[in-house]
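Lab notebook: predicted structure, single chain.

Context: the supervisor wants predicted structures on file for every construct in the current expression panel, including those that have not yet been purified. This is the next one on the list. No modifications to the sequence; it matches the entry in the shared construct table.
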Amino acid sequence: MTELLLISNSTLHGSGYLDHCAGEITSFLRERKNIVFIPYARPNGISHEAYTKIARERYKKMGFSLKGIHEYTSPNHAVDDADAFFTGGGNTFVLLTMLYKTGAFSLVQQAVKNGIPYIGTSAGSNIACKSIQTTNDMPIMYPPTFDAFGFVSFNINPHYLDPDPTSTHMGETRETRINEFLIHNTLSVVGLREGAMLHISNEKIILKGTTGARVFFKDGSQKEYKPVNEIKGL
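Prediction complete. Output recorded below exactly as produced.
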């Protein structure tokens, strides 16, 4: 049984770290207390230690104990201690590179497939998918592969922004980039807006949060979803 909570973003404008999704996280984790945090994405270059401190303090407010995966003597010990995993946002290429470099990738992947719950925000949601090819990040590191955990059969584009018809900006929109991806790949893509998240239990996908999602299906069609709806056909 695979249990996932894949969140678009860790912070909403005007609120604190994980404030907008604290209720969903608490409900998702239930009685599980020992959370192993994966800080490898390092937003803005923050250290693993500083990032873990931020996450630890927020999870403590929710009633959970959190420890960084780097604080264990080995990734094996971290996985053995985990009641659940939380992977924070930042740069997806750095995150995936470090997961492979430390040897944590296959250990976490197998543990989640065996039933350990997984929470991701932004980059942490990207790596739960088939690949990281629909991230918004710059490739500042070169992972051995773009293949991610593959907990789901689709990709996510976090922080999805709708095209603004009044904008004078001439750069490509998120919709354009996703359509480019679909030309060369056979995966559907869920564009998760700020404040949106997916609760996935085995094959059932429920959209939650305060905003909706635009799903780009592999056949080229699109569909809009609002909370709380089930997303099918991915």
